[in-house]
């Protein structure tokens, strides 16, 4: 049987017509620009997607920059993404310099890419991991790196090596190159040694003084060595910006601590210094002795302070008040100087026998404008108990008002009553006046045996500006008459 064409077409199924469909592309990242400052590089990219970008996927780590032979840098989102006129989403990423600030060793080609799985569109499709930009970066700044450190009882030695592609300006290396930030306030850093290894390689040793003169348990914590802004330069004047060189996450000390409390008190003849002692364990109060605290000054003053009071704070800590006696018996203009309060090493302990290595607690600048009094001589003879003559020089930087030198200028603490008379007042060749006082018994014809304290009377002798002398004991004499 021969089928006709008509019968074939009548029995064949009809073909479905295919409708055209939109082919969607994966989201893309397009490089826009790059710029750098002393510590980082900013890279700007525009993201595009046919179906819309999932902006919640834009964030840190969207871009990485890899350099052959160097670390891979991660871009952190610098600001909130913004919508551009063409509908793209613009994002700015910051790549921080590997060591905190750019230096000559960071020069090279950085290949910027977007890792898979980072930025996505609303369908969950990723921006590919292809190359976004080959950045060519060039730097000439010298490099600073902490190479070693040594912790000692009263300071910390930090060694920093400086290198450059050409040469280091050695003269720029000094006391202000680094600072230390951390659990305690650090000041007074000095550069103690400079070693020139070559024209482009110099090593510096810095001494970091311990807070309050000695490390103790109060200083436990993290510390960061900071290179200060553009301190060390190369011979072209280039320098790194401020950045952290190295962080020590946990320095630990177990020595007990001594902290001067705020209210020191200076009177006419004494200085009272309250000090709080504490430790990881309770303080042993028997170690808070008169030999623990010393006060020194460049004018030659050195004195062990006397403990006058001790307060148990009932928390393992103690507050002791130490007394310092003025040089020469009274504070006066000649005592104007810096005075350092220190605790001696290996005396202060806690109950677990942890010992303080000693420390300079604090330096005070004491200033006085009061006249001075110095005993030049004191004469008494064992065969003449009727009198005791004392010669005193009164002087001041502003001159002494001679009329204020009277028999009332001094008083005497003695075993029995005495009478004081002024025998003479004459100019002293070194300035001021020499006054001779005679001390005789108030009753009878014999001075009593015992101790005689020669004291200035507060406010009697005055300088030419009317400032009076401080009151205090100039000296003690033991008199014994046969």
Counted by DSSP, the helix tally is 1
**General form:** elongated
Task: Supply the number of structural domains.
Answer: 4
Q: Mind summarizing the main beta sheet?
A: 5 strands, antiparallel
Broad CATH class of the largest domain: Mainly Beta
Helix content: under 10%
Backbone CA Rg: 41 Å
Q: Report the count of strand segments.
A: 32
Structural class: mainly beta
Q: What is the second-level CATH architecture of the largest domain? A: Sandwich
In CATH, the topology of the largest domain is named Immunoglobulin-like
Q: What's the arrangement of secondary structure elements?
A:
Layout: H1 5-11, E1 28-36, E2 40-48, E3 64-66, E4 73-74, E5 76-77, E6 82-83, E7 89-96, E8 108-113, E9 131-137, E10 143-151, E11 155-163, E12 178-182, E13 190-198, E14 201-209, E15 221-227, E16 243-251, E17 257-260, E18 265-266, E19 270-278, E20 293-296, E21 302-304, E22 306-312, E23 318-325, E24 337-343, E25 359-366, E26 372-381, E27 384-395, E28 410-413, E29 418-427, E30 433-441, E31 450-456, E32 472-479
């Amino acid at each position: 049987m021969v089928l006709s064409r008509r019968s074939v077409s009548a029995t064949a199924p009809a073909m479905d017509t295919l409708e055209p469909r939109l082919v969607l592309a994966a989201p893309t990242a397009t490089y826009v620009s790059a710029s750098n400052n002393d510590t980082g590089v900013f890279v700007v990219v525009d993201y595009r997607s046919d179906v819309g970008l999932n902006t919640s996927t834009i964030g840190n780590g969207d871009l990485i920059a890899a350099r052959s032979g160097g670390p891979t840098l991660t871009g952190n989102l610098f600001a909130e993404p913004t919508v551009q006129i063409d509908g793209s989403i613009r994002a700015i990423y910051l790549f921080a310099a590997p060591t905190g600030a750019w230096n000559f060793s960071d020069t090279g080609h950085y290949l910027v890419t977007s890792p898979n799985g980072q930025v996505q569109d609303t369908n969950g499709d990723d921006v590919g991991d292809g190359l976004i930009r080959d950045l060519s970066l060039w730097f000439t700044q010298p490099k600073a790196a902490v190479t070693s450190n040594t912790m000692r009882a009263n300071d910390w030695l930090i060694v920093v090596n400086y290198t450059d592609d050409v040469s280091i300006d050695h003269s720029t290396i000094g006391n202000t190159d680094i600072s230390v930030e951390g659990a305690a306030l650090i000041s007074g850093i000095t550069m103690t040694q400079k070693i020139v290894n070559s024209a482009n390689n110099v090593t510096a040793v810095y001494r970091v003084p311990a807070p309050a003169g000695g490390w103790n348990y109060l200083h436990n914590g993290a510390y960061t060595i900071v290179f200060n802004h553009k301190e060390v330069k190369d011979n072209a004047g280039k320098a790194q910006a401020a950045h952290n060189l190295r962080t020590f996450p946990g320095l630990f000390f177990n020595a007990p601590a001594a902290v001067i409390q705020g209210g020191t008190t200076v009177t006419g003849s004494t200085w009272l210094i309250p000090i709080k002692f504490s430790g990881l364990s309770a303080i042993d109060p028997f170690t808070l002795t008169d030999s623990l605290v010393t006060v020194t000054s460049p004018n030659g003053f050195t004195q062990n302070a006397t403990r006058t009071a001790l307060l148990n704070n009932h928390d393992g800590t103690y507050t002791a008040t130490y007394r310092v006696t003025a040089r020469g018996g009274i504070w006066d203009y000649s005592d104007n100087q810096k005075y350092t309060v220190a605790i001696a090493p290996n005396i202060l302990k806690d109950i677990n026998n942890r010992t303080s290595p000693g420390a300079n607690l604090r330096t005070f600048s004491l200033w006085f404008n009061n006249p001075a009094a110095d005993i030049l001589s004191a004469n008494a003879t064992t065969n003449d108990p009727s009198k005791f003559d004392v010669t005193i020089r009164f002087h001041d930087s502003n001159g002494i008002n001679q009329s204020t030198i009277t028999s009332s200028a001094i008083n005497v603490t003695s075993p029995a009553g005495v009478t004081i008379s002024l025998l003479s007042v004459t100019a002293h060749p070194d300035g001021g006046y020499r006054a001779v006082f005679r001390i005789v018994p108030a009753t009878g014809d014999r001075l009593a045996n015992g101790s005689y304290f020669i004291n200035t009377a507060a406010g009697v002798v005055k300088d030419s500006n009317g400032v009076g002398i401080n009151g205090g004991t100039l000296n003690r004499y033991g008199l014994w008459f046969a």
